[in-house]
Amino acid sequence: MANDEVVLKQYLSKYKHRDYTAREVISLIQVYRSLVYRLEAFVFNNGTRKDLLNLEGTIPVNYKGAFYNIPVSIWLMDTHPQNAPLCFVKPTPEMTIKTSKWVDSNGKIYLPYLHEWSPSGSTLQRLVQWMITAFGELPPVYAKPRNQPRPPYPFDPFMPQPSGYPYPQVNPQPGYSTATPYPTTSNPLPYPNFGTPYPGSVSTNGTPYPAATPYPPTTNFGPGTEAGGTITEEHIKASLLSAVTDKLRRKLNEQSQQSQAELETLRRTQQELCEGKSRLEDIFTRLQREKATLEKNLSTLQEKEKELEAAVERLAEQDGIEADEAVVTTAPLYSQLLNAFAEEATLEDAIYYMGEALRKEVIDLDTFLKQVRTLARRQFTLRALMHKCRQKAQLAC
Q1: How is 113-171 classified by DSSP, letter by letter?
Q2: Global confidence as pTM
Q3: Residue-number span of the structural domain to which 75 is assigned
Q4: With the C-alpha atoms ordered 272, 273, 274, 275, is the resulting torsion angle positive or negative?
Q5: 312-341 pLDDT, tens per residue?
Q6: Which listed residue, 120, 227, 232, 307, has the most CB atoms within 10 A of its CB?
Q7: Which residues on adjacent β-strands are paired with residue 56?
């Protein structure tokens, strides 16, 4: 099994779902050990050539109480299980295909299970079980007539036969007696026309596989049919009911999931809207507070503006004020500090203009140096006095 898994993964290296396909094939060949897998070239009708995995061998079919090995070939698409497999009956040279509602004249198999193939629910084992059930009702092959008689059942080269047993020529039995097309009737099979479930193709040995066509017209399906199989009308009804139930259940699940997704989207949208509403309410409250603060500040500014206008009017009615009387100190220390500051500022201006006079050659250098020396000495004394006054008044120096 481990070796099969390694080989299969090498064969399926270009498959989209390699691991899933390998598990399905291993599970199938463990149940039906006569099936073998090979990687072979498959040529479609449009000339496209692909390397696909081919499951070829026999499946056991119970026909009228006896088991027969029916040779089949199952081609897995490289998108498996997204697309249904291509299934064919592969008769040996001693066999002839018996056309029916399940198999056309070129061996292509048509089953409702293939038409309703579901990537999430369909499996290869169920597909083979459908083939076994369908071929148990209508065998897809029978032995070619020979000069020697043959036994009255479909020839099976895969089952051991008694040594030297001749195949006598006898009258054909119902269900596999003749190579003529399956008889038609005005009452078709109660399955829908499946159209083209998968593209027509040709096998690797050159035998053409036709494009998929609707099921050939057949007789009514039910008890007492020509095949005389063990499947009764109740079985068919139960199968149809099960298929319809599964389909309805899938649709209901899809609708339920879609509704839940939409509900979850609406719930998230509602939550986002509620959060947005809370943010907007916070912003509105903050704007209200800012508006109240701005109105209060505006009222204060208007009051101050009125006070300034009144002060301007008072000053306009008064006489002029002397500059020396505009500033009045509250203590002698502050008066001394103010006078020293004013004198120091005048000395600064005097030194500046002395430099301008020297530059313009209004005074000579000796005069400039003498006067600047005197002014600088006085300026130094005033600055020392201001520093001492600030320390006494405990002001920042």
Answers
A1: HHHT--TTT--HHHHHHHHHHHHHHS-SEEEPP-SS---SS---TTS---TT------P
A2: 0.40
A3: 1-143
A4: positive
A5: 888 888 776 666 666 777 888 888 988 999
A6: 227
A7: 36, 73
